Amino acid sequence: MTSAAVERDDDAADPLTGPTIGEMYARIEAYYSAKLARHGAIPLGVDWSCTATQWLRFVQLLKVCAFDSPFSLIDLGCGYGALAAFLAETHPGASIDYLGIDLSPAMIQRARRRHRGKPATRFAVGRSCPREADYIVTSGTMNVKLGYPLGLWESFVRAILLDMRRMSKRGFAVNFMMSPTPGAPPGQLYCCDPATLVRFCQDELDCSVEILRDYGLKEFTVLGRCTP
Amino acid sequence: MGAAITDTTTADVLYQLNKRLSEGGPLQEMVVIQKEFGVFSEKYSLKQAFRVLHIVPNDFTERRFWFLFLDALKNYTSDQDDVSGHDRIVKAHQENLESDSPLPVYTTIHRAADDKRVTVTRGRPIIYETQEYLIISIPTVPATESGRAARVAARKKRVSE
Questions:
Q1: Sequence-ordered alpha helix ranges (H) in B59-142
Q2: I need a surface site. Which of A20, A201, B73, B140 has the fewest CB within 10 A?
Q3: From CA A163, how far away is CA A129, in angstroms rounded?
């Protein structure tokens, strides 16, 4: 893909070829590694405004999990391991086999340092889910589209959702923005309509869907529950 | 504030406070955060609450002084008997955000020489708005009166040496 193509923003459904997806992942990795280098291992380092709103998102995402029995969890786009810290704080008695995956080696390095000495909390550099898990969650990983054409970005989003569905045994959760943050540069953020996501999850992912909204943020959370 | 943090930082944190607790989406967000985590409560100090909300000076060198100031509010008096300035602010936020009809909050400052207490009132502090606000006002001593300017200069000198 040329840089001119990257700047284009239209509704055409661009093919998600190997080289294209490779370049997208490389740019996303560079974007978040730069954020971490600038702000450090705090919410701003993963593009969230503060700890409180980050926690608010975690509360919604974790509603997909049944905490009454042990489970495995993959946190796709785990950043510096904030969700693992939140789980330790809010569910200290829960038995969770946690695996955080992130594109950015710098993020994973920070996450490992923060959670050293916790055998059930592991981190790995990667693009997708390396194994099956009871639940797979991802927070905000598809919001920043870095000027990619809408059609291409939506193909990218669908590919990630398909991967999450394929690798989750019991359910998955993901959040999306409904309207752009005031002052955000045009074409940088991906916002979508909950109804579109519901249709996609029901038709393509064969799962039951619950949409959470009205939790104080201009976004919604999709909880996908898989039937065995 | 003037005695504790720079004038620029005072303006910075007042702007952040008033933006985060302004009418509409921001206030709604804070109501949900309060409901979910109780950030304004006896469990947490103002320092902890503002850390979690990331209401901190943009200037890194000023953050420590901001947190010291928030703790120092425990030694301030308030417009309620036997309630410190710190606890008055926490309680005002908590009661407002947990009420049936929360108001946007306008945090401002007044001269300590006029009134040494932290005060909480209701009113319309923004003259071009008809919106009612909860108004939290914090007594301040201008930096020149407190000798802070001299302390800041001494600190800069130490750093440069």
A1: 60-72, 85-97
A2: A20
A3: 7
Cβ-based neighbours of A128, under 8 Å, separated by 6 or more: A76, A101, A160, A163, A167
Range of the domain at B142: 7-160
CA–CA dist B149, A164 (Å, integer): 57
Structurally, how many domains does chain B consist of?
1
When divided into structural domains, chain A yields a total of: 1
- Given phi > 0 = left and psi -120 to 50 = alpha, else beta, which region is B54? left
Residues in chain B within 8 Å Cβ distance of A50: 52-54
Query: Which residues of chain A register pLDDT less than 70?
Result: 1-16, 18-19, 228
- The SS3 call for residue A113 is helix
d(CA A18, CA A21) in angstroms, rounded, equals: 5
pLDDT in tens, A50-73: 999 999 999 999 999 999 999 999
Q: What is the pTM of this model?
A: 0.85
User: Has residue B24 got a pLDDT over 70?
Assistant: yes
Q: Please check whether residue B44 lies inside any domain of the structure.
A: yes
> Would an 8 Å CB–CB cutoff place B44 in contact with chain A?
no
* CATH at residue A24: 3.40.50.150
